[in-house]
């Protein structure tokens, strides 16, 4: 997700549709990718409000607002609580030592270059 660095004050006198895009004065406004669902955009924007008292989960109803948001519409909270939900993806875990499930790479034998920029003189 990218952020627009334009501030509302920069939009004064511009087309009124432009002003509707910038919602919070003096704050970065997220630009969501086109494939992101409206529910995802909604929960992200509500969790990332600039004022903590306006953020989802930090209002009168607390965590209930988060749980009842449409992004979690298909979530079975009871099954989650009792550990009965299936994982969305399951990876095959091979038997053997714990490191067997990781990719192997050749050992890097190259010597690191010396760094003499002086950034650490004050330490």
UniProtKB/TrEMBL annotation:
Domain of life: Eukaryota
Species lineage: Eukaryota, Metazoa, Chordata, Craniata, Vertebrata
The protein, known as: AGC-kinase C-terminal domain-containing protein
The entry's keywords: ATP-binding, Kinase, Nucleotide-binding, Serine/threonine-protein kinase, Transferase
SUPFAM superfamilies: Protein kinase-like (PK-like)
Tagged with keyword Transport: no
GO molecular function: ATP binding; protein serine/threonine kinase activity
């Amino acid at each position: 997700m990218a952020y627009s660095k334009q501030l509302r004050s920069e939009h004064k006198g511009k087309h009124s549709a432009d002003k509707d895009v910038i919602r919070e004065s003096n704050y970065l406004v997220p630009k969501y990718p086109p494939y992101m669902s409206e529910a995802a955009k909604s929960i992200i924007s509500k969790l990332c409000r600039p004022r903590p008292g306006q953020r989802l989960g930090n209002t009168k109803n607390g965590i209930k607002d988060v749980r009842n948001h449409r992004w979690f519409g298909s979530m079975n909270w009871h099954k989650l609580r009792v550990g009965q939900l299936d994982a969305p993806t399951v990876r095959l875990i091979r038997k053997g030592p714990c490191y067997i499930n990781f990719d192997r790479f050749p050992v890097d034998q190259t010597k690191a270059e010396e760094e003499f920029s002086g950034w650490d003189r004050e330490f």
